[in-house]
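We modelled the chain as a single entity of 331 amino acids. Its sequence is:
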Amino acid sequence: MKVNNTLNIPEKHILIVGNRSYRNLGDELILLWTVKLLQQEWKKITISAYDPERLKKFFSQLIDISNITFVTEIPKGIRSWIRYISQGKLRERKLYKKTDAVIIGWGEIITEENKNSYRYRLVSILPCLKKPRYLMGGIQLPKKLFNRLLFKAILKRTKHIFARDQETVNDLKKYGFQDVEFFMDTSYFAYDWKKTRHLSLVTRNYVIINLNKNAEKFLPEIIQDVKKLYNQWYEVMYVPVAKGKNSHYSDIEYARKIQKGTEIKDQRFTILDREDDFKYFVKMVSQAHMVISSRLHLFLIANFIGIPTKVYPYQKKILKMQETLANIAKK
């Protein structure tokens, strides 16, 4: 399976929208390399985000953001619309309209495993519905009638799809959309992972773990994994990959549940932040004994670096990405 890292997008001013709402490492790494690819092609870039200032702060560690315009994402609900209007964000809509094309990019961007996925993708581009668009990520063909109608609306002005797994490519071609190609999840390129691999030669006496709301059913198994490793004298570092406000995007809640279930004392159960100093975070992952995760992109980072990983796949996307990585490795 060939890994291509060139975006064939002729338009000059590109708007990138997607799920940038929940301080999720995976979404941010996907966005990071998408931006890098566009910068290499001298594109003008506008990014839609839930919290533009926080995203700017994170990205400033890794790329030059001086020529990137950050705008607030289009609200999805009544309360967010009230806040959007009260904060004077309506005037930002003209910045959406100034762009030439839109990339709807994320992980599994369109899937019925996430409620309202199809509707949210359309809402996110309301000010520029007539602009040509490109889809990047994983896509699942809808089964529900309303979602099928929304999916047709999304595809209506879609020029090309960069799909992150071969199953998506095959399904879309069978569906009748031929302008689709395999394009590896852009987190694959987001960081120079090869430079960190020498660090993995010096493994330390700790493991890194993560659990999220969607994979809560695996909590008893992860507790048993952690107990076993703790009894072998490994310290435990918990990474809150997503740091949102609601339970589905607040991984830190599961740090407390795991620590309580394993009865590990504070000095041997610590929190590893991935946001304030990303280079330090990557270094710590590089020297871990192993990574146990239910979040796709913590699994991917460990895989890119070459750290042993145990993954709990709560969604099909994780299984598809494991297959994709295996196919790339064969080449």
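As a brief sanity check on the tokenised model: The chain has a mean pLDDT of 86. The chain is about 40% helix and 20% strand.
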